[in-house]
Structures are given as structure tokens and as C-alpha cells.
Amino acid sequence: MKYRRLTKEQLEEMHPEFINFLASQSITASEWEEIKSSKPQVAEEEIDVFSDLVWDGVLNKAEYLEHISPRTMNLFSLGENEMELISIIVGDELIDITTDEGYKWLQKNLLDDEVKIFTAKKSYSENPNEDKFKLIESGAVITKGDLFNYFDDLMELGKETNGF
């Protein structure tokens, strides 16, 4: 297994897709019931293969990830050959950027000494999807990239105005 098995809830949500997966292997509903009861190990392996296929599909489509904690915001843009990171760290322990109030403070105080912004680029390993999956397993979530693009635009604007 390359990733991890989908949860029971995820498998239930993907029931129609799982039926199609079994059908693509010429496994009927009655045959599936027989496999589950007489060869549970084979059934487990089929679920694992299906889980990997689902994860590969999701990870191939993912363009942005976010991992936000009370004092740190890590925003990832997932390019074809590398990922780009914008990391924002708030030094003031009283500020929690996961709250509306804390996030508004951050927006108003980006230039404050308590706020540090770092950027980095990193090439993927031999398997980009495994790199993305590790970030998800550590708490990152797939997003549309609104926050990444917001902060990326702000930094580009800052570069332009500092150039005069």
C-alpha cells in the first residue's frame, strides 16, 4: 500500500466508485460478498488497492495545501516539478491566527516585528504524490489556494514598491 486505507466513512461516500472498481475487475456484488466472507484477506487487499487509486487521483489533482496552527501558517503551491512554500510565523503567543480575530490581526500587522515570513522552493522526491501525502498526514489540507495567492500577491506588491 502506497498511502493509507480510506476510512470507513470515506469508503461509504465512495460506494458507487468502489462498485465500479469491482466491476472493472469483473467482480459482481454476490462474488464480493463471497470474497468478504471466505477470503477476508483478499477483500482487504482489494480495499487497499482501491484506496491507493483514490489517493493517487486526489493527489494528482491537488494544487495547493495549507497547514495552519495557532501561530504558524504554511501555504504550499504544488507545481509540476517542485512545491513552493510561504511560511508565516507569529511570535506573539497571545495571537491565534486560527481565529477570526487572530487572522484579522495578522492581516493588519504583516509588517510587525512579531511576524516572520519565509519562502522556499523544494523539488519533489522520486514520487511527488508521496511528498504531498506526507504533508496531508501531518495535518495539511487540500485547498483552492486562496490564502497562498493572497500572500503571494502581497509579497509581489511589496517587491514592486520597494524597488522604487
Automatic annotation (TrEMBL):
Fetch the Pfam families from UniProt.
DUF6495
Identify the InterPro entries for this entry: DUF6495 (IPR045470)
Q: What is this protein called?
A: Histidyl-tRNA synthetase
